[in-house]
């Protein structure tokens, strides 16, 4: 049986990293990289770190508006799918690559497999939310990462026979990464648990006003504790173009490879992020996480008490962070909360898909 796996961004590469080798064993797998992320620091470094084989097709779509990027990918993917004639198309998550791959397959009546189905922030202003909902409702097989996501799909009227609760592939990615390489020794860089880790890349947080408000808080926070800030390319562009001032106590770095980044999360006091993937990684690595958004698609970790939504208001960010820094027992309380983790999600996906496609 032939499958086509489509992806184009850092989170997709990471979350598919344990699945791709398993798919290669069980299927004739074609890998298509759309090129939605197209620099070494946002892309190829993750193939190197995670020991993922080369792609069969690379589309080099690059940046652009949502419509232009999605439309370009849709046209290119259609040609490849017509040529390859796969039995199923695999997409992951909520990116423009996810949507384009699913739409291209749908128009050609090719079964769509959506990994990480059912996640909802219930914020229709987010492009990712639109992508998730659309892909879920045209998919043949939907693999949900947690009970909340599964319940969302049921409530939206998707038939149960299409749904499979398998767990979160981010867990497999973290565990596989630790097996592939030794954790980075950060002793010469910064003392363990003596810094907080910051990431920012969401569209709503990288407008001038949104970014300026968050950086204002970060500069204040850095007076009391070091902040490590691997800077996304989109975020760096706004900082440079708008001359946003950043404190010397904020250590800015280029985007990092997966092993370095996981090492930084694991050794941090806690994390500040607007990334869905980082929220998952922090939970798996048992590091408290503050979410710089008003909503999240990973409410399962918020409801458990592992992560906390604090929004983007400067004063609220400052108060929340200082409260945690000044009360280390609260950090320990968050770490002591146990979360249920479904084991071997990647193997469950492969096993289920083999059975379904044979039928």
Task: Describe the protein's topology.
Layout lengths: L1 E6 L2 H7 L2 H8 L1 E6 L10 H7 L6 E2 L7 H19 L3 E5 L3 H12 L4 E4 L11 H10 L4 E4 L2 H9 L7 E3 L3 H12 L14 E5 L8 H14 L4 E5 L2 H9 L8 E4 L4 H10 L2 E4 L2 H9 L4 E3 L7 H6 L2 E3 L4 H13 L1 H9 L8 H14 L1
Parallel strand pairs: 1-2, 1-4, 2-3, 4-5, 5-6, 6-7, 8-9, 8-11, 9-10, 11-12, 12-13
Helix pairs in contact: 2-16, 4-5, 5-6, 9-14
Describe this structure in words.
This protein folds into 2 domains: 2-168 and 342-358, Glycogen Phosphorylase B (Rossmann fold); 195-336, Glycogen Phosphorylase B (Rossmann fold). It is 47% helix and 15% strand. It has 16 helices and 13 strands. It has helices at residues 10-16, 19-26, 44-50, 66-84, 96-107, 127-136, 147-155, 169-180, 208-221, 233-241, 258-267, 276-284, 299-304, 314-326, 328-336, 345-358; strands spanning 2-7, 28-33, 57-58, 88-92, 112-115, 141-144, 163-165, 195-199, 226-230, 250-253, 270-273, 289-291, 307-309. The chain is globular. It starts with a strand and ends with a helix. The model is unreliable at 184-189 (pLDDT under 50).
